[in-house]
What does this fold into?
Amino acid sequence: MIHRLLQESIASRMFKGKAILIFGPRQCGKSTLVQQVLEGQSFLYLNGDEASTRSALTDTSMPMLRTIIGKYSILFIDEAQRIPNIGLTLKIITDQIKEVQVIATGSSAFELANRVTESLTGRKYEYMLYPLSFAEMVKHDNFLKEKSLIEHRLIYGYYPEIVTHQGEEKLLLKLLAGSYLYKDLLILEQINKPVVLEKLLKALALQIGSEVNFNELATVIGVNRLTVEKYIDLLEKAYVVFTLPALSKNVRNEIKKGKKIFFFDCGIRNAIINNFKPIGERTDVGALWENFIIAERMKFLKYQGIDAKQYFWRTTQQQEIDLIEEHEGDELFAFEFKWNPKAKAKFSTTFTENYPNAKTYTISPANIENFLLKGLDANQQLS
It folds into this structure.
């Protein structure tokens, strides 16, 4: 079983008087993670996908909850986003049945988070679980093996089922892309045009690494701009894609409102466009590498508890830097991503002169360990 980096942190917060909430996309391993944390302990498991569970935990009372929980001191509620008023139910347990530790998982932040945030203010620990990460796979196997699999990861991604079923990746990814992408979204009344959603996803998949123009997307798909914006917002909240905004602080000709959109998982992206060609036969390897490395860096920062804001940088003259990180104390780090380790990155003098304290790095498969495992090596800084 693959060890998840969040396991020890979650275990350390058991029985601290707060609910434990674990968010993340479907099939990223939330249930397995909780089972690892609870290994050897007795607990009550309830699944929000089951009608009986939804009925029992909706608009319930403290006496009824005590009856349901019975002798158990740990309650694990899976797919909690399916349960109406789940926030109130978790509040009752946390406030009035203090001897019980409740753990809830949810695959739709826009449902679960909205329902629990107000009810559980000050009463919860929140975690975000992503598909498997480079660091987790290095720990599971070893660094050299995982590094040798980077091309494979760029094509098939890091979903647990994909990683553990070698030879079945294409079939499983197609099934996963369909069910996982749409199940939560289509339950909502807000998504009433699944064909539009599919077209939008394909359009986004074909332009990873490029700045997104909402008006152009709307024209291509045949809907208005507001619909595009709403669907992208929901795709973000369902952990299908994430947005990288433009950095704009000092330079007059910096793009101020631009956005790039990336996928949380390269395998899902490739399944959407049905392209599983090997790296040597692809024309999009640069964009794939950029998507992969930014998503992995995001996992690294989150799991390490590093507070950093991420941006891209571009001017109206098309000067560009792939990733900018703003850490505490206004410390800036600028990154260019090159698939070819021999390729040299040029950092615009417009950027370096206006942000003289920013540290600049080129990241390729040759030095990925410094970016995703142990932080940045000062020797990487470019002159």
Q: What stands out?
A: Confidence is low (pLDDT under 50) at residues 378-383. The radius of gyration is 22 Å. The chain is about 40% helix and 15% strand.
